[in-house]
Structure formats: structure tokens, C-alpha cells
Amino acid sequence: MTIAKAINESLRTSLETDPKVLVMGEDVGKLGGVFRVTDGLQKDFGEERVIDTPLAESGIIGTAIGLALRGYRPVAEIQFDGFVFPAYDQIVTQLAKMHARALGKVKLPVVIRIPYGGGIGAVEHHSESPEALFAHVPGLKVVSPATPSDAYWMMRQAIECDDPVIFFEPKRRYWDKGEVDTAAVPAPLHRARVVREGTDLTLAAYGPMVKTCLEAAAVAEEEGRSLEVVDLRSMSPIDFDTLQASVEKTRRLVVVHEAPVFLGTGAEIAARITERCFYHLEAPVLRVGGFHAPYPPARLEEDYLPNLDRVLDSVDRALAF
């Protein structure tokens, strides 16, 4: 399946198995979503289960919170990453805090789907990576799949979770294909995975950058360097145990994400791994990411986004210590 098809199949399975699951968002029904991720769901499950909402993100999330309070499991789509901010207040002041506010008596099983990242030739508000803003908020779980298999299973797990989950979908990878075993036993939602073994340096990434890191490891192998690639899968919580075990073996770490490096997820990872692995590290933890600037016009995005050369340049810097 493609990643887009895997998410569609995951939503379909969840709708079939649990009558309390709802899908809602702008154009998710008749159109099937701007990326066709929800294609065919409204036709098969009806307008009361797959709901075309008004163009009002705050209203979408506010309604999802109310539905969750009444026992439903809404899956709300934000059409593009940059459109989430009208709903930011609902997410961080209501959705993230209701469980603690109610002393654990209230659960809010809400999934918020957000296609994110660049690489599709779109303008600002359509190509951003705001995951660190949500990972910083206690009470939210934040994840991003890098493969069709993870897209299928992580969505299933997110819908079944009693806590709110922000599900970032790497939009430029929607059409990447891979095997999906719908009868498998999935890994825990927030566990990182070593997707390529190596001995000289660890590359850690999530979502769209995992593929880039795997490509960098393949090129490095031709140059006689062995790079381990860790797919973090989750930005909150982060599986530091898996990452620590990798770094203790390779003694070097480069963290890669599309979001700006400044105060990005990589900053927290660098600080934690430095604390945990200080006596194992043979080089400082390096970070590769976007620049601390608004997302550029489409003709400049290839220069803005982390690419193979920028990842390999940081590998060279780390190995030079």
C-alpha cells in the first residue's frame, strides 16, 4: 500500500469495528480529502460517521472534544499543517488539560490528523512542521509514521488510545509504497525502531526524514562508513531508551527533522542524550533541519529542506572529531 492508502484502510477498519469512531474535517467526505486519504469512507459509512465540517478549525476541534466527552472517538482532520493554529487554543487549553482538570475522571480519545512538511511545491501554511509546539504541551501524545505499515498500525493505536493524539502525516511521502500486514502484532505506539543497523554513527529521524536518512546511510556505506538509522516514530513521549542504546554503540548522533533546528525536537533529543550518554559520546550531538525562517516559496524549498548532502555533511563533521 501507499501511506495514504494505509491510513485510509486503518480508518475504514476502525469505523467498521467501533460504531463510536467518527471521521470529521474539511472536505473529508464527498471529496475524500485534498490528498484523497479519506476517499470512499463517507460513501460507505454515511454522512453521520464521516462528516464534512465548515471551514472552522477551532469549531472542528471544539466539536471533537464535545463528542469525546459523550463517549465517541472522533478523528479530526486539519487539512494542512499551517491551518491548525485557529484550533491551537482548543487543543492546548482544553483537549490537553481536561484529563488533569477532571482528576482523571474524564478521558478524551481524540485523534487530530495533520498532513505536515514540505516537498510538494506549496506555499507557506501548507508546508510547515509545527510538531515541537505540540510535543511541548503536557497531555498530548505526538506521533508520525514513516512507512505504510506504521501509518496503518499507528493510526489504529491512536484511535484506540484514551488520550488525545496528534497524528502528523508526512504529506510528501503519502505515495511511498510498502508492505502492510494487517494481521501483525504492532510495536507499541511510542517505541522507536532501529530500521538500519550500523556501528559508526546514529542518525535519528521521524516522519519524512527517515527515508532521507536511509538514503544517506546507503551512500555512506559506499564510502566505508556504517550508519545506524533510528526511526523515532513518536515525538511525545520520546523513546530515549532505544536511542540511548544505539548511541552507546555508535558513540555519535545526528538528529534530522524538517522543522527549524532552533528549539526543535532535535534540541530536546540532543540535551537528553548528552545527559544520558556523556561518557560514551565521541562528538557533540549535531542537528540537521530547516532554517529559522518562514517557509519559502516553492522554487526555494529544495534549498530550505534538509537533503542528502546536508545530512552527509553533518555525518562528516561528527566523524571528524
TrEMBL record:
Among its keywords, does the record have Protease? no
Q: Where is the Transketolase-like pyrimidine-binding domain?
A: 1-176
In terms of superkingdom, the source organism counts as Bacteria
Q: Kindly give the InterPro entries that the UniProt entry links to this protein.
A: THDP-binding (IPR029061), Transketo_C/PFOR_II (IPR009014), Transketolase-like_Pyr-bd (IPR005475), Transketolase_C (IPR033248)
Keywords of the record: Oxidoreductase, Thiamine pyrophosphate
**Needed co-factor(s):** thiamine diphosphate
Under the heading SMART domains, the entry gives: Transket_pyr
UniProt cross-references to SUPFAM superfamilies, sorted A to Z: Thiamin diphosphate-binding fold (THDP-binding), TK C-terminal domain-like
Report the protein name in the record: Alpha-ketoacid dehydrogenase subunit beta
- Organism for this UniProt entry: Streptomyces silvisoli
